[in-house]
Amino acid sequence: MPPIDLATVTFSIDDGRLVVRATARGTGRPYRHTCPLESFETVAHELDAAGSQGLTRVDLHERTGIPWTRINVAVLFLYERSIIDRTGRRGRLYVPASATVFEDAMTEYYALREGDQDA
Question: Closest Cα to residue 35, out of 16, 22, 50?
Answer without folding.
Answer: 16
